[in-house]
């Protein structure tokens, strides 16, 4: 299980922006007047003849009779997947914390000029969803329960995650293909997966030492102060796709057990250099003093947010930004300077 933002104990709700503090109150910013304009998408080469579509999910079957024109995303990262497939959602889940996702660099070419209305933050605002009159609701990374699924399905066909993976742990490849099927863009989705996997393969070939190297992915400011992510959290998939190994399960790390972070390489989410230096026990770890630590920056930074999105748009950005730092940390030479990210 992984932590909610701003809460002191781990929870199943894994929000993409990790442990950013809640800004107080839940906001539903969908328009109360006229619905937003139709999704800004062009006809897909693979959509003709693709409908009707039936997709099994953990709560039942999503039946989509025709190509969607008004898509609302209620998952914390689903908007990136929809944008990557050429569709602009008419509504999206509000992101929690201080990161300004409207300017995220990996999606600048896909984001519309006008802000997309939001449909709830920590909880989905069902009324706000209904007001946007969607013909498809996408919530693969939404953590919705069956009651909310039934409410949303009463508005429009609703795509929830399958039962093949733990809540919030659907691999990005599967999420891309599921959403591509729902949009009638299966060919585009497969091409997107192939392209991003190709970028990972290039990074793996250029950094063979990553294979089998253990990495501790740490969230600061959670629980006892540090939280070690396992393979049950999608944020570790970026690292495992590069060949690194992570623990099976996420766990709180007390000050007495900071040794759990002493892997071959340590990636720290939430710390810049000043914050790391101020954490004296953390700074004394061998993995830190021997130059095997990558600081991913604060939760308001692009790198941290990109890791949380874990999408076919943000992952190539992470490959470009983070792999050089990981290579420096994993080269076995303490004299190699590891760049601080943000």
Automatic annotation (TrEMBL):
Domain Fe/B12 periplasmic-binding, residue spans: 70-330
UniProt feature, compositional bias: Low complexity: 37-50
Membership in a protein family: Belongs to the bacterial solute-binding protein 8 family.
Record-given protein name: Iron complex transport system substrate-binding protein
GO cellular component: outer membrane-bounded periplasmic space
Pfam families: Peripla_BP_2 (PF01497)
Subcellular location: Cell envelope
The keyword Transport is assigned to this record: yes
Provenance organism: Geodermatophilus nigrescens
Signal sequence, start to end: 1-28
Highest taxon of source: Bacteria
Major localisation: other
Organism lineage: Bacteria, Bacillati, Actinomycetota, Actinomycetes, Geodermatophilales
Region (Disordered): 28-53
SUPFAM superfamilies cross-referenced by the UniProt entry: Helical backbone' metal receptor (SSF53807)
Xref: CDD domains: FhuD
Record key words, sorted: Signal, Transport
Biological processes per GO annotation: iron coordination entity transport
């Amino acid at each position: 299980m992984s932590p909610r933002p701003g809460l002191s104990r781990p929870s199943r709700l894994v929000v993409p922006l990790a442990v950013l503090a809640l800004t107080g109150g839940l906001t539903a910013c969908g328009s109360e007047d006229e619905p937003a304009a139709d999704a800004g998408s062009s006809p897909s080469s693979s959509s003709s003849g693709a409908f009707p579509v039936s997709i099994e999910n953990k709560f039942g079957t999503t039946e989509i009779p025709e190509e969607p024109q008004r898509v609302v995303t209620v998952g914390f990262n689903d908007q990136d997947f929809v944008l990557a497939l050429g569709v602009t959602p008419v509504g999206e889940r509000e992101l929690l914390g201080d990161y300004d996702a409207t300017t995220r660099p990996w999606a600048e070419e896909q984001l519309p000029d006008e802000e997309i209305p939001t449909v709830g933050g920590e909880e989905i605002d069902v009324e706000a969803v209904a007001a946007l009159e969607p013909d498809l609701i996408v919530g693969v990374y939404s953590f919705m329960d069956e009651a909310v699924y039934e409410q949303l399905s009463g508005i429009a066909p609703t795509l929830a995650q399958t039962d093949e993976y733990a809540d919030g742990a659907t691999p990005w490849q599967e999420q891309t293909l599921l959403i591509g099927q729902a949009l009638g863009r299966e060919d585009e989705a497969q091409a997107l997966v192939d392209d991003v996997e190709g970028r990972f393969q290039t990074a793996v070939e250029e950094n063979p030492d990553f294979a089998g190297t253990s990495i501790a992915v740490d969230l600061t400011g959670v629980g006892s102060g540090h939280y070690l992510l396992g393979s049950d959290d999608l944020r570790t998939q970026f690292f495992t796709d590069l060949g690194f190994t992570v623990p099976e399960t996420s766990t709180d790390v007390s000050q007495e057990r900071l040794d759990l972070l002493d892997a071959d390489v340590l990636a720290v989410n939430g710390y810049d250099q000043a914050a790391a230096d101020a954490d004296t026990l953390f700074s004394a770890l061998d993995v830190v003093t021997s130059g095997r630590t990558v600081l991913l920056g604060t939760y308001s930074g692009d790198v941290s947010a990109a890791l949380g999105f874990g999408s076919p748009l943000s992952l190539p950005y992470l490959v470009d930004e983070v792999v050089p730092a990981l290579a420096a940390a994993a080269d076995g030479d303490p004299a190699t300077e590891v760049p601080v990210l943000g």
